[in-house]
Amino acid sequence: MHPVRRTRPTGRAGRLALATAAAAGLALTAVAAAPAAVTATAPGHGSAVPHTAARPAVAGHQLVRAVGSPLSIEECRAKWKIACYTPLQYREAYDLNPLYRAGITGKGRTIVIVDSFGSPTVQHDLDVYSRQFGIPSTQVQVVKWGNVPRWDPKNADMLGWAGETTLDVEMAHAVAPDARIVLVETAVAETEGTTGLPEMMDAEKALIDHGVGDVITQSFGATENTFPGFDKGDFSSIGKLRYAFEAAARNHVTVLASSGDGGATDNTADGTGYYHERVNSWPSSDPLVTSVGGTRLHLDDAGRRTAPESVYNDYGAGGGGQSHVFTRPAFQNGVKDVVGARRGTPDISMAAAVDGGAWIYSSYDPSATGWDVSGGTSESSPLFSGIVALADQAAGRRLGDIHEALYRLYGRSAYDRSTGIVDVNDGTDNSYQGVTGYAAVNGYDMATGVGTLDAARFVPALAREGRRG
């Protein structure tokens, strides 16, 4: 699966770590401690699919590890030549504070986060993170799906997924501080060549069937080309994995996925290289999933914008392009001149650049406890999950599949600022690893989708538009 990717650090105390995490494989098993006491055993879809491995999106990028405390933007630039942002700066940049003042904080809504292995210190780390920035913390409800193995800080896969887990939880909480967070930890187990995706989908469907969760965020993906049968035009191995998303659609649960960190290309099956042509990845490419791409924020210390958002393209690039599996869904008919006859990704974008990365706190690795800076579209998907939780609260109900509402808002956005959709059109692009990508131009593009958002306008607009669906 493609990484949205998390680079695992090779050093300590603020050293730049440019290696990509080799976190492969995901799996789920039985759910414990779910509100509705979900205890079903995974039904064994694994026999049908695939040899493709799931990799965490945060594999995308982490440049700074184990700093004693967050530094200012100026200090980050002097020390590492990148900007580093706090959740308070994100709140200003995305105009979230007016919503909080109006009581729209995600209260009463539940965000489901799915990650292999999880992190043994996720609650402690969220508490430290929240305290640092004066944000009330929240209880993370951990659901173990399957025989999740005992934590091993020397296991590279576990470290990679723990970093992903930390980023997902802290970013979702940063945007929707009063939303409930349910973390599904899956047990990575290679069983006769099947690596985790069926178990992940089983876990998601079990939670959906038990009424748990309003929005699901997925910071993982696999290049479509790596699924069995793809080279013969047989896409049934992906088709057999869509049952969780179909259940989500029936139950009005919003499903999100990171668009990837490989720009217009993505990882080969072994995870060590990239395709030399344009490719896409699943589940981001699925029409039942809202694909969240990446941008780069340009902020001052107060969180005010010093320049418009541009495309994330530094130690990775925001994923986007045409699906080779799915044809154009009806909700993209209005952008058919851009996507052609295929499903185009992403749908919308938020912060993901490493130069402008997010401060997070982690202590799962005893050799590198402290403050890290992370980027990648595994940051943007949980950020947007918080936005959806806010919109669900504003609407007073689950909005479910938001595509129709999102693209209706986009259709008016050129002349109606109240939609809250902000075009990203500065001409930067998501070319990566020698594969020419797509430029951010006026209107929808396959670098940033419809663009990014002004939350104070977008959240109520999405809530209103979603009620029509």
Mean pLDDT: 86
Distance between the termini: 32 Å
Strand content: 15-25%
Roughly what percent helix? 25-40%
- Uncertain runs are 1-50, 189-194
Class from secondary-structure proportions: alpha/beta
Question: Can you put this structure into words, describing what you see?
Answer:
There is one protein chain. The protein has 469 residues and is α/β, with parallel strands linked by helices. The chain is 27% helix and 19% strand. It is built from 12 helices and 21 strands. The protein has helices at 73-80, 87-93, 97-101, 122-133, 156-175, 197-209, 236-239, 243-250, 336-339, 377-395, 403-413, 455-468, and strands at 55-56, 62-67, 84-85, 110-116, 140-145, 180-186, 190-191, 194-195, 215-218, 220-223, 254-258, 281-282, 290-296, 310-311, 321-327, 342-345, 348-351, 357-362, 370-374, 421-422, 452-453. Strands 4, 5, 6, 9, 11, 13, 14 and 17 form an 8-stranded mixed β-sheet that branches. Strands 2-19-18-3 form a 4-stranded mixed β-sheet. It has a 3-stranded antiparallel β-sheet with strand order 1-10-12. A hairpin with a 7-residue loop joins β18 and β19 (370-374). α5 (156-175) runs parallel beside α10 (377-395) and α10 crosses α12 (455-468). The longest helix has 20 residues, at 156-175. It is globular. Residues 1-50 and 189-194 have low confidence and may be disordered.
